[in-house]
Amino acid sequence: MLAETICSAVSAAGLGIAAVTAYRKRFLAATRIAAYSLVPVGLVLTGVVQWVSGMVFKPTVWIGFGLLGLAWVLFTTTRAVERRGPGRAGKAPKAAAGAPGREAVAPDASVPSLGTGGRQGAKPAPAAAPADDFSDIEAILKKHGI
């Protein structure tokens, strides 16, 4: 009974503010305020307010919300621990997961980074000339007549 009275008072106050706003020639804002002020009365008449007030004052409902919150905390905690754990069971390390071949390296990489075993006296491979880098582009442009 108290919730319905409060909702009716809020709606009446909102309609009063809408009337003052319309008197000031702000009809669009007055219409919007009137629409918002009719929502509480609509909720009372549909029975939503009674349903919510009945739900709020039951201890079993609050216990249920508490259990749902506890379940959420447990799920998020286990996810965080699973992501941070260094020894994840069932997951292979990155080095073992990859193919035994070479990893990708930059075109101008030195010999040790290419995986030659790090020999001290090995000379780096000569870098490709800059003109060779654009030869395929020049061929495409000549093909199109540019």
In short:
Helices cover 64% and strands 0% of the residues. With 146 residues, it is mainly α.
Please give the structural blueprint.
Elements: H1 2-23, H2 27-46, H3 48-56, H4 59-84, H5 94-97, H6 130-133, H7 135-143
Helix pairs in contact: 1-2
Architecture overview:
With about 150 residues, the chain is mostly helical. It is built from seven helices and no strands. The chain has helices at about 1-25, 25-45, 50-55, 60-85, 95, 130-135, 135-145. Helix 1 (about 1-25) packs antiparallel against helix 2 (about 25-45). The longest helix is centred in the middle third of the chain and has 26 residues, at about 60-85. The radius of gyration is 37 Å and the shape is flat. The termini are far apart.
Number of helices: 7
Q: Name the average pLDDT.
A: 80
Question: What low-confidence regions span 5 or more consecutive residues with pLDDT below 50?
Answer: none
Structural class: mainly alpha
Oligomeric assembly: single chain
Helix content: 55-70%
Main sheet record? none
First-residue to last-residue Cα separation: 85 Å
Nearest-angstrom radius of gyration? 37 Å
